[in-house]
Amino acid sequence: MSGKMNETVRILDVAQAQASILRRRAWDEFAVPDSLLERNRAIFGEPIGPDEAVRRILADVRQRGDAAVREWTERIDGVSLPALQVSQEQLDQAWEQVDPAVREALVLAGERVQDFHRRQPALSWIHNGPDGTLGQLVRPIDRVGVYVPGGTAPLPSTLLMTAIPARVAGVPRVVAITPPQRETGLPHPVTLAAARVAQVDGVYIAGGAQAMAALAFGTESIPAVDKICGPGNLFTTLAKRQLFGLVGIDGLPGPTETLVIADASADPRLAAADLLAQAEHDILASAILLTPSRALAEQVQAQVLAQMEALSRSEIIAASFANSSGIVVTESLEQAFQLANAYGPEHLCLLVENPWEHLSQVRNAGGVFLGEESFEVLGDYVAGPSHVMPTGGTARFASPLNVTDFVKIVSVIGLNPEAVARIGPAAETLAQAEGLTAHAAAARQRRQRRSPEQPSTP
Fold it and tell me: Which of 218, 271, 311, 445 has the most Cβ atoms closer than 10 angstroms to its Cβ?
């Protein structure tokens, strides 16, 4: 393994990195693997692409409801579902099955996520001025559905990181949906334990596109929601993209990513550990180190090779480094920050001397982790901010999941006659400029009612 990995854990210069691991690609630039086409052939009877597969599933669930959710779950996941909702008794049983230490950790994580998001201001405001009243009402969304992945591993932390901010925002109904285990037909017990900690209003059983469709359209067993949140696989993300506009969508998360900026002062063991922790998520995960120190780059490369041998997901890690991970030697720390801002990583980790001095250089990142004690794994579980963060370079314009994702703003306009007299003519003028004569007439009639002796504008 070591010889093969030595070639896989690449040390690149900046030009090489920009042409490979630092290059962002659009959705349609990714080739569909033959293995996926063949799997779709077995499921659909023809080798259709993922987008078309999702379209068919969405349409079927919209038309046939529960029956379609059950059928697609059996065809795709190989699980026959007797029910689509987890009962309270099953939730209680799952809680008892989970190790007490895990339950305690879930409670701690939940408390920290709740405390962090309670500090976020999302307040209504009303201003009374000479023209009358203007303001904004901040109101929670009525119904939110949280998707919790459960494919290669259960992700109870994701349930906490999505449902709890919704609860803090005041959403009156929060439900979770997550895939079943093949052995039991139920979600993993630790995910159900997290649902209890987050106090969701219901847990439903389905994965992938059929889960997205059920939340968006509603079925006999699964109530429709107003917004869907949470990460997932390719099919889940494609479904969210197709459903956007029919239901609210938090974002289109892709493979997870960490970018580490380190200088010569960094501990190569810790830098390697942080890269490995990210690379084990998925074969498409990105774990990238930027450093101006060639010596550190080589030390981290050696540490990755040494540490990964003992890890349970070493094959996934190897594939991640072969696909989209690696080490980049930059000319300076300044260049490293320039590259990081251009890349816009989900997680940006600063393993440098005096990391707070460099915070002002960060413009684009889902989350920034300052120093070796603020490692990204803490952010995954217990730091407090939601770990659902923008990926694929969307940190250039998007934010981590937060309280504002679960509220909407209602503008308040309560102007008085004096305001109509002062600003109404400008509205009439702009309406005429746009050729909207009914708009202009509505403004003119208010002015005429206010000052009937004044001639109207033709």
Answer: 271
